[in-house]
Amino acid sequence: MFHVFSAATFLPANFSWIKELDVAMILPVLLLSLGGLAGIVNAQAYEPADFNVTAALEELGIEVSELPPLANLAKRAETGACSAACLTLSLLYDKESVLTKADAAYDVFTSSYWSEIQNEVSPRCVFKPSTTKDVSAAVLLSRLTQCPFAVKSGGHAAFAGGSSAEGGITISLEKLNYVRLSCNKKKVTIGPGNRWADVYRKLDTRDLTVAGGRVSSVGTGGLTLGGGISFFSNIYGWACDNVVKYEVVTAAGYIVQVTAKSDPELYWALRGGGNNFGIVTAFTFETLPLPKGEMWGGTKTYLESSFDEVSDAFSNLIASSPKDPNAGSWVAWLQNSGMKLAATELWYAKPDGDQAAIFSEFQNITPIADSTQNRVLHEYTDVLDASNAYGFREVYYGLTVKANAEIAKVARRIFFEELPATAGVAGANPVLIFQGITEGQIAHMSKNGGNALGIEPADGPLYIIHVAAWWENESDDETIYSFISKVLKRIKSESQKLGLASDYVYMNYASTFENVIASYGSQNAERLKKIAASYDPSGVFQKLQPGGFKLDRAPSPNSDYFSG
Question: What residue stretches are annotated with the FAD-binding PCMH-type domain (predicted)?
């Protein structure tokens, strides 16, 4: 039996916004204790047909008779629901774990996203769980109050709502930042609160690494759930193909350990399915050998007079990847101070890549700048992070085509033809980027039952062609989106004429207007929906977590902009 306390027992004097609430509704919820959450750890993964939040709270030791009808909660205005949820969190956790608009730390947090567009989102509160059980509490509380939420790992999504909840709860996983190496060093368990540099710094000293991100400040969670291209993907596959176990909080608050054997369908769905199935609180990766953390890489920058040679060298490198899968590249086409440039990133999965024959075409083109050298992995990702400036409005926007030298040149031409449309945009820095999805990468996508991306060996190799841009003012959003949309529509049209079009959209480079899950193919999209219906029949991660790439829609659907 729980004691019933007066509001004065809990409420700080400055909680003026409590007046919005029915205190009788709130107090029973305040009794939700962390100790009681142990009852849902290792419970069955499937949500039973008769599941409801009231029953779940009964299992946690909460007097159901003291709770108001769930129907009444559901009918409350969103502001009332989220006031209830955030007040409850504030009373259950310390002030460092729950931030509201009254806290100076709230402003620091909401201005910490990579994209200024996400910084403009104002959650009702920010919750920073310290344990997986805390995450379960947040999910159940969201269901009880019907307050929307978002989940933040690194906060590198470019669009509003990707990892921030307007008027809702933003759950920041930053405290779940452990890196735990197994005794035999063959596996490492990584919390979603890590940035990739955190992981690499700890593994570099052990002569190990993982197939993770290439920019230091990117979070481990979002990149892995979206697929995750690595410096080592030609050899070992994408990040999602190297995860052997996920710890997941389901819509019912259950904490489950998901492997290819324990839950093959959910395991498959988590490999590229995004945030649609639960909150992942730990990723267990296979470790990869990387003596002293050393590899080779850097940027070679070329003038316009070398563009065709650079384009051919890139195309030949992707085609030749099976001969030496240590080698990788992307090419960024841009204009700086009126000068057209090709910034070519080259890397090699071990030292002395400048001696590798596969790079001979690039070595025969004279650059105006060259930073390639032997590097320690975590330091290399810091260098690349420096070119991803914070504090600007940002967009990533892309498509995929079959690898072909002609379409690469056509896409480049279209980009520079349309680029003058951005001349009047303050701080504009649009870049067209080519990356390869090689035969080796695709071969690893069938590991452990495969992933959800819908890419088959017969499809490859492929190019991801995406436009990234930053700019300063919201008033120029339309100009930037229209420019990129026109570029991609033209490239898509040309790829279709050449018989090179592909439906696939890489989630981590997709815009808010693109329906990523649909791009995985109708069979995979339907399979993902069926899996979600089993683990989340009430659609918590479709409705209460509305941000990100949902199973049936883009983040900003029904737009006239390019949608994939």
Answer: 119-290
User: How far apart are alpha carbons 516 and 507 in whole angstroms?
Assistant: 6
Q: Closest Cα to residue 173, out of 117, 71, 247?
A: 247
What predicted TM-score, i.e. pTM, was given to this entire model? 0.90
Contact 172, 83 (CB under 8 A): no
Strand extents, DSSP E, 378-536:
393-402, 431-437, 462-471, 501-502
- How far is C-alpha 101 from the geometric centre of its chain's CA atoms? 26
**Rounded alpha-carbon distances, angstroms, from residue 311 to 342, 441, 495:** 9, 21, 17
Q: How far is CA 46 from CA 6, 43, 275, in A?
A: 38, 9, 17
Give 180's strand partners: 189
The DSSP secondary-structure symbol of 182 reads: -
Q: Over the stretch 87-134, which tens digit does the pLDDT of each residue have?
A: 878 877 899 999 999 999 999 999 999 999 999 999 999 999 999 989
For 139-191, the pLDDT digits (tens) are 998 998 899 999 999 999 999 999 999 999 999 999 999 999 999 999 999 99
Residue 34 phi, psi dihedral angles, 5° rounding: -65, -35
Rounded distance between C-alpha atoms, residue 536 and residue 182, angstroms: 32
Task: Note the pLDDT tens digit of each residue in 500-514.
Answer: 999 999 999 999 999
C-alpha R_g of the chain: 24
Three-state DSSP class for residue 530: helix
